[in-house]
Design goal:
single chain, 199 residues, mainly alpha, two-stranded antiparallel sheet, transmembrane, CbiM/NikMN, membrane, transport, cell membrane
Length: 199
Amino acid sequence: MHIAEGVLSAPVLLAGGALAAAGVGLGLRQVPESRVPFAGLLCAMFFLASLIHLPVGISSVHLVLNGLCGILLGWGAFPVLAVALLLQALLFGFGGLSALGVNTLVMATPAVICGALYRLAARHGAPGVSRWLAAAAGAGAVALGVILMVSALWLSGGHRYLPLMGLVLLAHLPVMLVEALVTAVIVSALQRVRPELLP
């Protein structure tokens, strides 16, 4: 889901960078000191999961786990994903530094939205429903991320990227299913062994 260097227009890069910086600032204030080691663990998990990726044009397909980050950290997903994306850009050239803000926004915004929806639904739902809510959050975060990525491409070139947009949407359908399964399994396991980590 990384957008490569040199693809997006300057206004999109600047707007994405500014919004991502605001999200990171808010996220840093929202994560209590006691949760910092846990946030580091999620950062490492995201970093490793997205290393196994398949190139799709000027983007790539890989596990994101942003829905899980949103469920567990809320706004804290912004700094966690920003750090992981920065390390991937510096160490492996994934995405690149100029697109770091947009890539952070594309992955962290759906994490925050789906995490908030999960918490709202889980608060009012039956206990056994939470794994299905987690699955929906995992798949939904990937779907929203793809929509944001396609929107960034559209704002940067419109018709030039139309064939690629369709390919990116199709390529992420199986990723959504895997994300739903992985997120549901992890949340179910945490409910049994470490329920205090869940909101």
